[in-house]
Amino acid sequence: KPTEPKVFDNWWARYSCQRASPLVCPNQNLAEELHILCRSRELEGLGINALAYERAISIIKSYPELITKETFSRDVMELPGIGEKIQSKIHEFLKNGFIEESRVIRQSERYQAITLFASIYGIGPANARKLYDIGLRTFEDLERYYDIRVGGDLKAIEPNMVTPNGKKIPPSTKIPEITVKVGIALRNELDAPIPREEVEAIYCEVMAQLNILEPGCEATIVGGYRRGKPRSNDVDIVITHPTKAKGLCKRFAQHLYQAGLVTHILHLSGFHAHDALRTEHWDSLEKALTVFILPEGTKFKRTHRRLDLIFAMPEAYWTAVIGWSGSKMFERDLRLYAKEEKYVDSAYRIESLSKSHLRRGLKFDSSGLTRRRDSLLYVPRSEEEVFQILGLDWIDPTMRNA
Ligand code: TTP
Ligand code: MN
Ligand code: MN
Ligand code: MN
């Protein structure tokens, strides 16, 4: 059993996977104010800019005490990742208790509408902007646009191709229509956060069904639940089986669908399906992104919930568990950290440097940990072992909220 890390150990380290990041930090208000700036950049398609804010926020989330003018210029300002632009925003917050630009953004019609559209499952920032640019503003606009009523036959309805201001939808706007329609139709249910107790009830039901189809599976609830969030937006479960893991994803998704527990399969991918589309958040694991509803007779109100099932071969189980526990920033830095061959930065403290720089040249993703120079595949037998191979101190899942 790994030793509990000191909560705020290593707060100055470069990568968020080297730092403890609690769910709620001493500088939560500042983090949330900066998050508006981050989110607005993300929604506007300014990825690099958004990432700079996200990094700064993750550094602030690891800082052990309330940031004041003194601690700011003593500690925080010096850290890699807090550039001049962000420094001035933090100064503004320390002076006034808020950031003017965040206020303006929060109140802007564009930010509100695009946030609303992007909150629908299946609509990303780029499509949210397109919908705004063709004149949509409210949820009703969106509903009308997709010509859908709650409870309507989702598959029978063709999308309405004419926008409120009479323009035709541009042919380049390739929204996966059915998915968006499911997202719109079930919006109120899918929007409602899932308490931990219900996450556990869903897990139990899933495991009972899995045990009918293929006894002997091992599984972990991952995602925000594992990081200690009191309420989650969906349920994420990583599953493996000693011999029958391959192909199990599709079989199990169909099993749950036939049992009436999965009402929609939004995405189903096999081991090779996403090779061409691999971005930093896509791995080569089998996964089913679904909509789930608990059977009758539980203590919970029957509500459609997003359920992600991820299947890993036994040798990839622990990297899958880590890769799907998040946060997204933690995952991103794990990849970067694993890759870095050596590290040179004057702001970086020597004790962390000497510990980690020898071990790198690795490639981490949810589907495995390999050595880059000869593609040697590690087969870690526990989550702790993954950290050991990477040369990282253990960070508890509840401290991975970077
Ligand atoms: P999410 O379920 O999107 O987010 P979350 O569980 O951290 O928070 P919540 O659901 O409450 O909003 O993603 C869970 C983890 O899975 C996240 O750490 C990143 C990883 N992930 C992938 O690796 N690939 C993917 O395609 C997605 C969507 C997530
Ligand atoms: Mn989740
Ligand atoms: Mn989410
Ligand atoms: Mn998920």
From TrEMBL:
One GO-annotated biological process of the protein: DNA replication
Reactions this protein catalyses: DNA(n) + a 2'-deoxyribonucleoside 5'-triphosphate = DNA(n+1) + diphosphate
Annotated GO MF terms: DNA binding; DNA-directed DNA polymerase activity; lyase activity
Gene Ontology CC entries for this record: nucleus
Cofactors, names only: Mg(2+)
Enzyme class: transferase
Top-level taxon in the UniProt lineage: Eukaryota
EC number: 2.7.7.7
Ranges for domain DNA-directed DNA polymerase X: 25-401
Domain Helix-hairpin-helix DNA-binding motif class: 74-93, 115-134
Keywords: DNA damage, DNA repair, DNA replication, DNA synthesis, DNA-binding, DNA-directed DNA polymerase, Lyase, Nucleotidyltransferase, Transferase
Family statement: Belongs to the DNA polymerase type-X family.
The protein's name in its UniProt record: DNA-directed DNA polymerase
Organism of this sequence: Panaeolus cyanescens
Residues of the full protein shown: 199 to 600 of 602
